[in-house]
Amino acid sequence: MAVFNVFDLFLYTFPMTTNTPLLTDLYQLTMAAGYWKSGKAEQEAVFHLFFRKLPFAGGYAIAAGLGDVVRWLEGFRFGQEELEYLATLPGRDGRPLFEKGFLDYLGTMKWQCNVEAIPEGTVVFPHEPLLRIQGPLIQAQLVETALLNIVNFQTLIATKAARVCLAAQGEPVLEFGLRRAQGPDGAVMASRAAFIGGCASTSNVLAGMRHGIPVRGTHAHSWVMSFDTELEAFATYAEAMPNNCVFLVDTYDTLEGVRHAVEIGQRLRREGHELAGIRLDSGDLAWLSIEARRILDEAGFPKATIVASNDLDEHLIESLKHQGAAINVWGVGTKLVTGGEQAALGGVYKLGAIRDENGEWQPKIKLSEQAIKVSNPGIQQVRRFTLNGEFRGDAIYDEESGCTVPTEIMHPADPTRVKAMPEGTVHEDLLRPVFRQGVLVGEQPTLQEIQARCQEQLTHLHATVKRLQHPHEYPAGVERTLAERKLAMMVEAKGKVGATA
């Protein structure tokens, strides 16, 4: 009964919130207890958050989620309710899993790590650290799961949105996936990330309130069905919302619905208002949009927009464009906010270096039988090279040893593939300070500024990198000095394993 009461109190005290350090996997806390018990809790360490493979078989990804990471880290503290809950957890012998001394330690813990991050809206590539966390080992470990949860999802959705918006060729994309999203938090995060990727608006009113995203929406099929006739439904809606008339025309007969929209549009015009447009939600969208455009134009409504929906994604939009569809606005829901064919971004969080008792940094490496899973050692930074306004390559390098000039970039999975940066390139380092010893530094950009950065970034990528099918591979890899150190560490580590065996 006591366990139930404490857990029930926790749920009551934190209704629908994820701004708590308990947004984590249990093994983060068991490792933390081990660090505390062994005296390693305060040892300085560096972790990197990155992904190994581009989503959607695409040529780039869009970094997103940092704004929510900042908010979560600012609230990183163990309160009384969390500590009381952790005290109820049993070990396999039925005794308390966590010692009281460890829980007391957590209760006094204050966030004090340095955080470097690639700004949201930046185009990014495999193995590049999106976040770098430096500070006490226990703290850097405890934040792993939440950071991955936030960054993986929002980077996935922002990337999907960018692909959809590029397929729409500058025409507005409306995100309206709330009802199909992965729960309330997922829905709001998806709306935020979709806006970063380029969506013009959302149907999600809560996301609009929280993030300042424009909200759009008119009526559903149920509105039309609740009246005796479609014409009556349109007329009544026009009386109630004369400045928001985009009529859903496919409840019964689509083209007849367009003609009814025209009739009500003429009434609106006589009363000093305009028909904003129509929405097509089923059928042959290419043919129906062309016919609807003809009806609207002949009736004197050339500015009325045609909005299309119905399980759209970037591939279907691209196809409809090729078919000459007369669509002005694209409503994308399920396949945008869920990632569609890509269930998740495979982001990971790996230890890169740890400071020894002499104050020296010791690089760390994780081995694997799969080359792509061997981690990069050291304190990593990403250097981007640009020539004549075009991004030419990214080099991951170790800040302790620096980046050689001229720079050679080695493919992360194939050291025989080397790309030398040409003369005349300019460069910038992408990881920038966000927290210094736990204190937020600098001004945080608005969501509109982040979206603008995304759009600007995409203009610097070659068109072949942005194509949907079989994109050109952008040169992103490990700087030669770091690659050579990595290889030497791999050989040394495997030698130790062999000697032990």
Automatic annotation (TrEMBL):
Q: Where is the Nicotinate phosphoribosyltransferase N-terminal domain?
A: 22-152
Keyword field contains Cytoplasm: no
What does the record give as EC number? 6.3.4.21
* InterPro entries per UniProt: Aldolase_TIM, N/Namide_PRibTrfase, NAPRTase_C, NAPRTase_N, Nic_PRibTrfase-Fam, Nic_PRibTrfase_pncB, Nicotinate_pribotase-like_C
GO cellular component terms, semicolon-separated: cytosol
The Nicotinate phosphoribosyltransferase C-terminal domain extends over 383-484
Q: Does the keyword Cell inner membrane apply?
A: no
Pfam families, alphabetized = NAPRTase (PF04095), NAPRTase_C (PF17956), NAPRTase_N (PF17767)
Q: Which GO terms describe its biological process?
A: NAD+ biosynthetic process via the salvage pathway
UniProt-listed CDD domains: NAPRTase_A
Pathway of this protein? Cofactor biosynthesis; NAD(+) biosynthesis; nicotinate D-ribonucleotide from nicotinate: step 1/1
GO molecular function per UniProt: nicotinamide phosphoribosyltransferase activity; nicotinate phosphoribosyltransferase activity
What is the catalytic activity of this protein?
A: 5-phospho-alpha-D-ribose 1-diphosphate + nicotinate + ATP + H2O = nicotinate beta-D-ribonucleotide + ADP + phosphate + diphosphate
Post-translational modification here is noted as: Transiently phosphorylated on a His residue during the reaction cycle. Phosphorylation strongly increases the affinity for substrates and increases the rate of nicotinate D-ribonucleotide production. Dephosphorylation regenerates the low-affinity form of the enzyme, leading to product release.
Q: Which residues form the Nicotinate/nicotinamide phosphoribosyltransferase domain?
A: 175-350
Enzyme kind, highest EC tier = ligase
- Name the keywords, alphabetized: Glycosyltransferase, Ligase, Phosphoprotein, Pyridine nucleotide biosynthesis, Transferase
Record function comment = Catalyzes the first step in the biosynthesis of NAD from nicotinic acid, the ATP-dependent synthesis of beta-nicotinate D-ribonucleotide from nicotinate and 5-phospho-D-ribose 1-phosphate.
The UniProt entry's sequence similarity note says:
Belongs to the NAPRTase family.
Q: What is this protein called?
A: Nicotinate phosphoribosyltransferase
